[in-house]
Automatic annotation (TrEMBL):
A biological process term (GO) from this entry: organic acid phosphorylation
Homology family: Belongs to the glycerate kinase type-1 family.
Stated name of the protein: Glycerate kinase
Lineage, highest ranks first: Bacteria, Pseudomonadati, Pseudomonadota, Gammaproteobacteria, Alteromonadales
Class of this enzyme: transferase
Classification via InterPro entries: Glyc_kinase_flavodox-like_fold, Glycerate_kinase, Glycerate_kinase_RE-like, Glycerate_kinase_sf
One Pfam family matching this protein: Gly_kinase
Keywords: Kinase, Transferase
Entry keyword annotation includes NAD: no
Length: 384
């Protein structure tokens, strides 16, 4: 019997690998002779680096970079290990690690001045280590600078009318007069960039970066107008510089316009995060011949349908006719819709109503116990 365990993390309590370990432990207590394949995964958001490093026996690189407000912060990215069968040496970067909203206290959030420079520094470090393939996860950013800070970090000169370097932040984009790519990092053209992006917002307008995501980063209605105008001007100068105009490409407005930035300066391709992760960890190949696939995340609800890990895993499994069980910390009232889209059974590990702190602290034990009971039920079914 072959069982593949491919969960996402349970946010704030267990990493994806820890989740996989507890599920295996519970199942192995009932089915000790089964073959277990653990593939910790993610959907391109928070936890993607750790999941993919764990899945491939890779390495976490930590370094000090420029934070959203210009101060130094400790950030990280991952280099995939021997378990990754790709042809190119690959790194995985979460934009939020260097430029995330969590790095700015609520009273200091101001997208007029926050910068994505630190994300560019992570990219440069990876390039300098000989990386030829970089996966970047967008989301959770504190910035609205269209990736301008990132571009400056990788060697682009963004200049005002006086020929001076543009100041950090989204509002400074209104002063952009020219772009000089002469000193762009020479290894960029030798590297393939894939960007995990699960929103389809354009750069500007009522559905753009500033209007949709600006308020959560501290933007007032007046700031939103300033930032939207500045991003539009930025896109004009990018186009005038001979770079393809992608301002209306779905995803251009992701992460404060970083979607446009990575397309413009890295020639990156935007893809659904779960698709990139599934392909990179070779879930389809590892699942061949499996009798059962187990997935999960912290919460299962109707939103899980939209690019979340369990649906990506279910899609891979169903293509091979494999049954899928999903386990979560919480299963909402509307989660049964998932049963119509490739998941065969849903289980919650929370035994009763508990305070959130207790739910999080007891997640490991509850996950093991639930997995053990699911395994017992599965064994009864298989014995018929």
């Amino acid at each position: 019997m072959k069982i593949v365990i491919a969960p996402d993390s349970f946010k704030e309590s267990l990493s994806a690998m820890e989740v996989a370990n507890e599920i295996e432990r519970g199942f192995r207590s009932v089915l000790p002779s089964a073959e277990y394949i653990k593939v910790p995964v993610a959907d391109g958001g928070e936890g993607t680096v750790q999941s993919m490093v764990d899945a491939t026996d890779g390495t976490i690189i930590t370094l000090d970079v420029t934070g959203p407000l210009g101060d130094k912060v400790e950030a990280f990215y991952g280099i995939l290990g021997a378990g990754f069968k790709g042809k190119k040496k690959t790194a995985v970067i979460e934009m939020a690690a260097a430029s995330g909203l969590h790095l700015v206290t609520e009273d200091k959030r101001n997208p007029l001045i926050t910068t994505s420079y630190g994300t560019g520094e992570l990219i440069v470090d990876a390039l300098n280590r000989g990386i030829k393939h970089i996966i970047i996860g967008l989301g959770g950013s504190a910035t609205n600078d269209g990736g301008a800070g990132m571009a400056q970090a990788i060697g682009a000169h963004l200049l005002n009318s006086a020929g001076k370097a543009l100041s950090p932040g989204g509002v400074a984009l209104a002063e952009l007069a020219s772009i000089d790519l002469t000193d762009l990092h020479p290894l960029i053209t030798k590297c393939t960039f894939e960007v995990a992006c699960d929103v389809n917002n354009p750069l500007c307008g009522e559905k753009g970066a500033s209007a949709i995501f600006g308020p959560q980063k501290g933007a007032t209605p007046e700031m939103v107008l300033q930032l939207d105008t500045a991003l539009g001007h930025y896109a004009d100068i990018i186009e005038r510089s001979g770079i393809a105009d992608n301002r209306n490409t779905p995803g251009a407005g992701a992460a404060g316009g970083m979607g446009l930035g990575v397309m413009s300066f890295l020639n990156a391709e935007l893809k659904p995060g779960i698709d990139i992760v599934m392909q990179t960890v070779n879930l389809a190949g590892l699942s061949q011949g499996a009798d059962l696939v187990i997935t999960g995340e912290g919460r299962l609800d109707s939103q899980t349908l939209h690019g979340k890990t369990p649906m990506g895993v279910a899609g891979v499994a169903k293509a091979q006719g494999i049954k899928v069980i999903a386990i979560a910390g919480c299963v909402s009232d509307d989660a049964n819709i998932l049963l119509e889209h490739g998941i065969d059974a849903l289980f919650s590990i929370t035994p009763r109503a508990l305070p959130l702190a207790e739910v999080l602290s007891s997640a490991k034990h509850n996950l093991y116990s639930t997995a053990k009971n699911i395994a017992a039920l599965y064994a009864l079914s298989a014995a018929k």
